[in-house]
Amino acid sequence: MRGITSCDFVTRIPVCPSNGLPMYREFNDEEVETLAAFIQTPEFAAIKQKPPYQRAYDVAHHLGDTMSPVGFSLSLSAWWYETDAFVANPRIQDSFLREAEAELGRSDADGAPVLAALTAFAAAHAGRDDYARRWLAEGRSRLGDNPQGIAYLEAVAACLADISAAGCAPDDRFEP
Asked: What is the pTM (predicted TM-score) of this model?
């Protein structure tokens, strides 16, 4: 239940065809040197087998970009665009939940309930019902007067009752 935007019709994350490095942002000269050495390691060889957003998250972790808006964005994109791989990988789920916790601390009053609902939805799809209920409660506790936030939170709450119901797939369009 993510919004569909014009961004869905462009390359989501470019990946270097020769070495498999995801280009999730511009890197400075020092980072280029660090990455040039990193892509030669067995650690990167293992990371290279992952889908692009999960790979980018691991590269971001290597560069210290996690627990930040960048880390949250990459882990959220792994959920949205690599759903099957996300659901199959408890490590990226754990990373997403940690990033969401940090992002919640950076969210404004309108964004916090939506973030909590998004996190509850992802947790439910991953079979983490306790997390899903906790995040839904968090969203409700922060609910203000944002009509779109209220509508999204209630749509997610309905999906938590039966995550396999029509309209509850991660890429189903949500329209308040």
From this structure: 0.88
